[in-house]
Design a protein that fits this description.
The chain is mainly alpha-helical and 119 residues long. Helices cover 83% and strands 0% of the residues. It has one domain.
Length: 119
């Protein structure tokens, strides 16, 4: 846990100290990479809840999804076709599905704790 907190503090400090500015032509790539990363993080939480989290699967999914989504965006830009919309739809759908799993888990845990305290 201390490693996570330390990494978070270092990341925030670097983010505040470094000049922030994303060139306009890079924003679609950054946006789709962030969406792919969020999809992997939520998927990792959902996998942890289901007791089948594997670090190799998480890391390969995190970087693989981001690279594939950015490649789709790049190819789409070359062809002048918005192919990245497919990645947005897929990642958005999976984000909401994983969030639903997490939400149900938290609600069930909270409800079970409430029932046990009431008894």
């Amino acid at each position: 846990m201390i490693i996570i907190i330390t990494a978070l503090v270092i990341g925030i400090a670097l983010g505040l100290l470094m000049p922030s500015g994303i060139p306009a032509n890079m924003t679609p790539y950054i946006a789709i990479a962030i969406l792919a990363g969020l999809d992997s993080v939520f998927g990792g939480f959902a996998a942890t809840i289901n007791n089948n989290f594997k670090m190799k699967v998480f890391l390969t999914g995190f970087f693989g999804n981001a690279l594939l989504a950015m490649a789709l965006t790049f190819i789409g830009k070359l062809l002048d076709v918005d192919i990245y919309l497919a990645a947005i739809i897929v990642f958005g759908t999976r984000l909401f599905q994983n969030f639903a799993v997490i939400r149900r888990f938290l609600l069930n845990r909270h409800t079970n704790d409430f029932v046990q305290k009431k008894s």
